[in-house]
Protein: Protease PrsW
Organism: Paenibacillus xerothermodurans
Amino acid sequence: MSLLSVLTAAVAPGVALLAYFYLKDRYDTEPIHLVVKMFIFGILLVFPVMVLQRAFVHGLGEDPFVFSFIISAGLEEFLKWFLVYVVIYQHASFDEPYDGIVYAVAVSLGFATLENVIYAFLNASSITSLLYRALLPVSGHALFGVIMGYHLGKAKFDRVHKKRYLLYSLALPIFWHGAYDYLLLTAETYWLWCALPLMAVLWMRSIWKVNRANAKSPLRVIQGEEQVKT
């Protein structure tokens, strides 16, 4: 494969998934420059994560459970969550529950895209292996982002249960990401038969969350009233 072909195949899944979730926003699509900004922040996040994970491995060892839930999922999802919370959570453009999904997915897919590019070049990947990564690791990051963003959106607009949803927005992506990684590390010969049902469940739950977040949009009511008036 040529250099351009490898790069395109590695980048395309992340960009396609981001476009998919971006266009799922029914009522008020987010400013594209903010979405691109969060995607780039996700790319930049790869470098500190690599350094910190190496340090954590030296300190904590490589026990599959510790590696999956703390070194991999815990560190990655916490830094993604922190980035979204600090940069965009209080931003004026975050004005409906679905926006949390858009921005969390943008960060997650920025991270997954560079990770995929690095993997492709270090392992001289074929189209088949990159297709596998598109279906599993890259889409997995997107779905963990949906879970995170859905609960961040609920936290932003449900003041009564804000702390609970903020906790869910961090804990649930760590759980699902950790479960996925642990499965890959421990199910040696039959991991694919476990990973595919897990991804199917995550996709179904994510589509439900996408629809649910859109249904809770305050802009849905406003637009409905405008249509009635016209």
The longest helix spans residues 127-157. Residues 3-229 form one domain. Residues 97 and 154 are 6 Å apart (CA to CA).
